[in-house]
Amino acid sequence: xxxxxxxxxxxxxxxxxxxxxxxxxxxxxxxxxxxxxxxxxxxxxxxxxxxxxxxxxxxxxxxxxxxxxxxxxxxxxxxxxxxxxxxxxxxxxxxxxxxxxxxxxxxxxxxxxxxxxxxxxxxxxxxxxxxxxxxxxxxxxxxxxxxxxxxxxxxxxxxxxxxxxxxxxxxxxxxxxxxxxxxxxxxxxxxxxxxxxxxxxxxxxxxxxxxxxxxxxxxxxxxxxxxxxxxxxxxxxxxxxxxxxxxxxxxxxxxxxxxxxxxxxxxxxxxxxxxxxxxxxxxxxxxxxxxxxx
Amino acid sequence: xxxxxxxxxxxxxxxxxxxxxxxxxxxxxxxxxxxxxxxxxxxxxxxxxxxxxxxxxxxxxxxxxxxxxxxxxxxxxxxxxxxxxxxxxxxxxxxxxxxxxxxxxxxxxxxxxxxxxxxxxxxxxxxxxxxxxxxxxxxxxxxxxxxxxxxxxxxxxxxxxxxxxxxxxxxxxxxxxxxxxxxxxxxxxxxxxxxxxxxxxxxxxxxxxxxxxxxxxxxxxxxxxxxxxxxxxxxxxxxxxxxxxxxxxxxxxxxxxxxxxxxxxxxxxxxxxxxxxxxxxxxxxxxxxxxxxxxxxxxxxxxxxxxxxxxxxxxxxxxxxxxxxxxxxxxxxxxxxxxxxxxxxxxxxxxxxxxxxxxxxxxxxxxxxxxxxxxxxxxxxxxxxxxxxxxxxxxxxxxxxxxxx
Lengths: 294, 405
Hints:
The complex is a heterodimer. Chain A is 74% helix and 0% strand. Chain A has helices at 4-36, 55-63, 66-97, 105-117, 120-130, 137-144, 156-184, 189-196, 201-229, 233-239, 249-256, 263-293. By secondary structure, chain B is an alpha/beta fold. Chain B has 2 domains: 38-145 and 288-358, Periplasmic binding protein-like II (D-Maltodextrin-Binding Protein, domain 2); 149-285 and 368-402, 3-Layer(aba) Sandwich (D-Maltodextrin-Binding Protein, domain 2), CATH 3.40.190.10. In chain B, the strands form 3 sheets. In chain B, strands 1, 2, 3, 4, 7, 12, 13 and 14 form an 8-stranded mixed beta sheet that branches. In chain B, strands 9-10-8-11 form a 4-stranded mixed beta sheet. In chain B, a hairpin with a 2-residue loop joins strand 5 (133-134) and strand 6 (137-138). Classes of the chains: A mainly alpha, B alpha/beta.
């Protein structure tokens, strides 16, 4: 038998390859960009750059005008709307797929997961085509139904709506799979017991299903809220910011900082966005935890 | 159990090893050997174009003994950026002229003033040489250029309009029954440049200061607003070319890259210069991208590298590029060649190039695309007052440029 100490070390040994990968691909870049944000690395100081302290942060924060806060607010609204729609649709679909008597479950599940498998920029471009004012299928269908055409990609409000539709379509499969997995893990004896007690479907959903799938759902929601908050390709490719009127944090940062090849300033910007996200996550976790105790 | 563990271990080791193997294979420029020099060139041409260039260089190597090695690089501009910092660069790079300002400041490429025979540059179109001149110094040898011109469907419009007034009138007349008179991607700074530079306004001055609020730009905006009223909504590049290829658009402004698709659809097309601006009688002047060869800071044998550059503008290379890649050569002599003289497409694009504006090579241009595109969006698509919009984005552009430092 191996000694206790050796046994304790084995897990670390096994995780070493993954740790090396994580270090090279995740941890090192994060710390490097934090380091860069304190230097003056840009086009004009490319080969020789040095530490300049908090100058970049001061520049970013002082140059942030009302526009930036509007963008942050818009991003939060965008994230919330997306999450609400995503979770409700995903839950609905998962509940339907979870019906025992349902036939062709496999095919339906595969079809519903499909959007997830398509690279998001391709989906974005396809949706852009479909939302086109005069030649897109959506407006053609609308006018066939006798409704007026909607300026999807020209008006900021509709541009946002179009982006949300495309993003929901992209993100629902992931949420649906999480919901479905959680639903399938619920022991059906609970429902049988509830039936004996005379519970309605409504009761069963809110008092059995919801509490039991919450542990699985919360991490998925937090994860998705990150992805949605940081969403870039959908908005950028579909509306291209519509002159700044549909910009979210990432597209704003891209246009503001990244097109200038000023790496130190962009890094400072990214670090600030990182802290905004961190704050929102802590808030999110607090809220969901508080919810749990009720 | 044990087998499983060893297997898992092995697999993870293989995965980790795979990670490093990707890093090890970087294409380091091969250093010149002791006796015969080898010059390495990074480029992003297609393989068949590379082959043609290499064949053209065979005679060069025979004459001079200088070997030239062409290495295709994906994402060449990123590699150049990283390479300038770590000094891992080839001797030469082939790329567009708007790299000049940026990479010379970053220390990636160096001036070739005094290394290039003046006879060579005299044989090239002046506007293309200008494209590689930055702060009065020559930074590269132009080989080819591309620009946009007026492409029209002869079945829908017999003769191309000569002035913008005619263009607007024709566009109005022909936009009906699901067909369009004139199309251009409305928010693209490159495609719309012809009118701004024709109006003698423009995006940037020679020192890299934004000039969006210059009064002349309002004249260009007037023309674009008139034309913009006739565009379908949500117009973009794909839609412009699709409508033209479907025979639903009489005229568009586009580049040589579209001709293949147009021929395939058997559209009876013609090329003409973009109509001259009616208000000042001057030629429309679209942006012209120039492709050429530049010397990096890592070039050891500068004389040999300069010779390789000079040959890149040579007729042999120019012909190879024109034939295999459909490029428009910068070498003036090429246009005396009967084969090229009889190709109306090449002649039309070279005519347009004579009045074109070489793409600004100042690094500030990189920060301009976004403000210009937003300004065009508000003026042409959302139909807001141009003077206010230009003032707004003049400030945005100034801010963006300030952020570069």
